Amino acid sequence: MNIRTALIRLARATATTAALTLVTAATTTATHAAATMNDPAPEDTVFVDAASLPADELRGLDQPIPYAEYARSHGSKSVAPRAAADPAPGDQQDLRQQCANHAAQAKTATGWLKSRFESCQKRPFDLVLRDVRGTTTLGRLKFDQWVLGFAYDGSRRVDYVASIENIWVQPIPTEDATKWRIGQHFHHSVNASSSDPDPQVTAPQTVNRDELLGVWDTNPHWSLTYTSPDKGALFDQGNQQRVFSTVAMDLSASSPNSAPFNEGSNVYNSSVRYDYAGPVAGKHKGTVFTKARVELVMSQKDPAVNESAVHIYDALNRPERTFPSWPGKSVPGSKEPLRRVVDPKKIEDNRKKSIKECKKVWGDYAGSGLECDEYPFASTKEGSTKGDNRFSVRLIDGKDNRKGGERLNEMYTLNRILDGDPFYVKITN
């Protein structure tokens, strides 16, 4: 009998003593007692989410320690001393700090989307290794998963920096946490039905990393780059070479005798669009995170656009003060998104109808220095010609009106808002 087997038998035979309160009481049947005298067979153990277990099965597992401390106390020779990490680039440091301030969103599968070009997931995991044959819990594993995402205005590329950090463990004496592993497994798909013809995405050469805890602890970060090839400028032929893709990641956790962690599927997903849309998007090509919320923000205290801002505020919050006037009127843009239109004819048709409405209410205003301001904007599908009368017009100062239009166009190009893309409007005091 080797030393490890002897320790396992001794530990399980004395499971009711104070020294082994980590192990819940086994049944007293002779059959189960005999079974627990043997080593677990392959796939007899599994990591499960600690939140899925009753409190009595977590008894004694409330004092995990940092993995490095555990490894040192167990004389592990496979773990090198932690090297001083190179400081992360400023954009990564800033994003990580901001991500921590949005913890609730950051731990979701999509993470926190700071913008169309930056995203972040910080997702804590709390797993328990247990014997699936009975009632034995073998240890606890806690760690943070990070994924930072960077899309680019000007390049058909997206980068991800993934990591496993802050690893804490608490195994029972007969379990060796230096042999536990965590894996991150990336994969992607392309939505051909939404994309333009011949959509392609090139994945990085390495998309899987499955390592011992000690390797993650000393080298937590790794990077992946996805790109989409293009055929040059075809936007003037009506082909923006849009490619809609999803990058997802599965998480694995295992010990030498455990079955795969079965709750780690799609723990992270990222929706991406590559395009070569040309000048309508600002920089001719780029990549965005499509689930990011885009807002046009204007202030009622901004002297350059205060009349535009007050008009939009009234349309969104006091539509009874706006024209055309009708009972129960509501105007989209705050809770319902607006969607951009780039067709010059549709934009001009919206403007003509809005000007007609202004003249109907205020008469001929030529030479007054005032202009007909419309909301929703002429460059949206929700403009005045949509047919539902959920729009507003008002005469405002001409310079203010034109500056408001400039702010709108800046928002379009800074966020790569293409035809049909949604955005919202927020008016501050």
Key features?
429 residues; alpha+beta; 2 domains; eight-stranded mixed beta sheet; five-stranded antiparallel beta sheet; 18 strands; elongated; disordered N terminus; Deoxyribonuclease NucA/NucB domain-containing protein; signal; DNase_NucA_NucB
Describe this structure in words.
The strands form four sheets. Strands 1, 2, 3, 4, 5, 6, 9 and 11 form an eight-stranded mixed β-sheet that branches. The protein starts with a helix and ends with a strand. The protein is 22% helix and 30% strand. With 429 residues, the chain is of the alpha+beta class. The chain contains nine helices and 18 strands. The longest helix is centred in the last third of the chain and has 19 residues, at 344-362. The chain has helices at 3-13, 30-35, 67-73, 90-100, 103-106, 213-218, 306-317, 344-362, 398-414, and strands at 45-49, 65-66, 112-113, 118-131, 137-151, 157-171, 181-190, 208-212, 221-227, 243-254, 258-259, 268-275, 286-289, 295-299, 338-339, 370-375, 392-397, 422-428. The model is unreliable at 1-42 (pLDDT under 50). A hairpin with a 5-residue loop joins strand 4 (118-131) and strand 5 (137-151). The protein folds into two domains: 3-80 and 88-289, no CATH class; 295-428, no CATH class. The radius of gyration is 30 Å and the shape is elongated.
Brief summary of the model shown:
With 429 residues, the protein is of the alpha+beta class. It has nine helices and 18 strands. The protein folds into two domains: 280 residues, no CATH class; 134 residues, no CATH class.
Explain the layout of strands and helices.
Blueprint: H1 3-13, H2 30-35, E1 45-49, E2 65-66, H3 67-73, H4 90-100, H5 103-106, E3 112-113, E4 118-131, E5 137-151, E6 157-171, E7 181-190, E8 208-212, H6 213-218, E9 221-227, E10 243-254, E11 258-259, E12 268-275, E13 286-289, E14 295-299, H7 306-317, E15 338-339, H8 344-362, E16 370-375, E17 392-397, H9 398-414, E18 422-428
Parallel strand pairs: 1-11, 14-18
Antiparallel strand pairs: 1-4, 2-6, 3-4, 4-5, 5-6, 6-9, 7-8, 7-10, 10-12, 12-13, 15-18, 16-17
